[in-house]
């Protein structure tokens, strides 16, 4: 197809559908067929200016609705999203290559997240200070006004819809910029929201991080920024926000260890390691993927056999298929990047125990086989750097203090996982790991309300919890002198 044969989608700014002022376009490509399926605006500074102006204009009215009315509108938004859940899931399959089951789970998760924050809204409350003679001191929490929410390509609808819920619930208006490689479902969110929320409350612009994203971060009218993405992009956000001394939260990358003790059920632990990779949810394109497997030497052989057997059972194919578990990566440049890491692993002496390239029978599409690497040491590139694909690295250990040191020897610290039947060993190891979220015998799923966020270069702040809600407010102290 040529661009003339496909639909060109528009952005939502101030309740109106608009194109990029400069007329630039970005192509949306189906990662399964490699066919052009739509074009979207390539927003620039002028478009960001218009979106922020619209959000500012809408902010006082949205704030003054009060939490109860805002919560009711968010619940209605969740209801309408749920009514179109199948269509939205299919769109993320086609635009981002998510397996259909994973895309459905993403939409369901977004609906739940919106409902959670709609109900949690009244908890963004103030407090009173200890009384002093002739004074009364209290605090209130007020919205920032306009919030910039920048989300990545790997869970397009889940992040677009779910991550605007907390700022909206607390009375902020939002300018949302989705990942330029998978923006179509965010524009569908805009369509649904336009019938529920007042104009300008949610604005959705599309474009690259270098143009639209950078302009949004630097805009003087935006004082609160929340970004999800890579560590280098997170650093760029911090640099861009520094001039304005802005409140920034970041959910960034991970090179997450799973430490497997010798007392585990090997098959169960291997299944958990694969589940924690999110291969069947988003082809391993997950910041929380358990990509470094530290397995006790006494069971490493059996564990490797179990991994290979279970990886071989994963069904790779058309992500629209009901039984498909592994689809393509989201776009060509990322596909090439992941294959480049596998080439590097070979050059550095790693062994490909399973997978390692394009699946048989898939000449088109951005497919990479689920892959297990062995014969590694901690200095190798694939052990040190986040690959963001279906690639697992298996290493062995004997001394627990040493393996904790190795697990912590990274600038990243998002998640970690400990597998053991020994309660004392589990707690001791969890306490020693440098990560913001530690699972014990987990599979990477986290209950709603549990604070999620990284240590070290994996981020700033918490999401998925009351802490996230409160972070979209500013605390004001008022002291009244009593006459």
UniProtKB/TrEMBL annotation:
Domain Aldehyde dehydrogenase: 17-478
GO MF annotation: an example: oxidoreductase activity, acting on the aldehyde or oxo group of donors, NAD or NADP as acceptor
Keywords, comma-separated and alphabetical: Oxidoreductase
Residue intervals passing through the bilayer: none
One Pfam family, short name: Aldedh
Active-site residues per Swiss-Prot or TrEMBL entry: 251
PROSITE patterns linked: ALDEHYDE_DEHYDR_GLU
Matching Gene3D superfamilies: Aldehyde Dehydrogenase, Chain A, domain 1, Aldehyde Dehydrogenase, Chain A, domain 2
Family affiliation: Belongs to the aldehyde dehydrogenase family.
Protein name in the entry: Aldehyde dehydrogenase
């Amino acid at each position: 197809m040529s661009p003339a044969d496909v639909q060109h989608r528009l952005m939502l700014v101030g309740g109106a559908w608009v194109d990029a002022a400069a007329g630039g376009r970005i192509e949306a490509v189906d990662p399964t067929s490699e066919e052009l399926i739509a074009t979207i605006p390539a927003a620039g500074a002028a478009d960001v200016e218009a979106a922020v102006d619209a959000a500012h204009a809408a902010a006082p009215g949205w704030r003054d609705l009060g939490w109860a009315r805002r919560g009711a509108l968010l619940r209605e938004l969740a209801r309408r999203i749920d009514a179109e859940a199948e269509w939205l899931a299919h769109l993320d399959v086609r635009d981002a290559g998510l397996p259909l089951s994973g895309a459905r789970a993403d939409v369901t998760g977004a609906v739940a997240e919106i409902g959670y924050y709609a109900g949690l809204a009244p908890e963004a409350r103030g407090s009173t200070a200890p009384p002093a003679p002739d004074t009364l001191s209290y605090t209130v929490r007020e919205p920032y006004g306009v919030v910039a929410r920048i989300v990545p390509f790997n869970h397009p609808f889940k992040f677009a819809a779910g991550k605007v819920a907390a700022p909206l619930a607390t009375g902020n208006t939002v300018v949302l910029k989705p990942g330029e490689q998978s923006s179509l479902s965010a524009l569908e969110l805009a369509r649904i929201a336009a019938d529920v929320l007042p104009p300008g409350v949610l604005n959705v612009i599309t474009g690259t991080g270098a143009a639209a994203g950078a302009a949004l971060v630097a805009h003087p009218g935006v004082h609160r920024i929340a970004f999800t993405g890579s560590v280098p992009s997170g650093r760029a956000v911090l640099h861009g926000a520094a001039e304005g001394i802005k409140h920034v939260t970041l959910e960034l990358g991970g090179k997450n260890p799973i430490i497997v003790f010798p007392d585990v059920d090997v098959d169960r632990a291997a299944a958990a390691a694969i589940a924690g990779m999110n291969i069947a949810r988003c082809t391993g394109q997950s910041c929380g993927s358990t990509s470094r497997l530290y397995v006790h030497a006494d069971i490493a052989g059996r564990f490797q056999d179990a991994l290979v057997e279970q990886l071989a059972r994963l069904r790779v194919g058309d992500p629209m298929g009901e039984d498909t578990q592994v689809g393509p990566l989201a776009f060509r440049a990322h596909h090439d990047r992941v294959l480049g890491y596998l080439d590097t692993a070979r050059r550095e002496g790693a062994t490909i125990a399973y997978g390692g390239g394009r699946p048989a029978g898939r000449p088109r599409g951005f497919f990479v086989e689920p892959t297990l690497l062995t014969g590694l040491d901690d200095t190798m590139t694939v052990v040190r750097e986040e690959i963001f694909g279906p690639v697992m690295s298996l290493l062995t250990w004997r001394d627990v203090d040493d393996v904790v040191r190795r697990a912590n020897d990274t600038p990243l610290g998002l998640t970690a996982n400990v597998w053991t039947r020994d309660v004392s060993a589990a707690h001791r190891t969890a306490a020693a790991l440098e990560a913001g979220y530690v699972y014990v015998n987990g599979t990477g799923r986290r209950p709603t309300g549990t604070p999620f966020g990284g240590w070290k270069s994996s981020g700033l702040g918490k999401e998925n919890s009351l802490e996230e809600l409160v972070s979209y407010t500013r605390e004001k102290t008022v002291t009244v002198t009593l006459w």
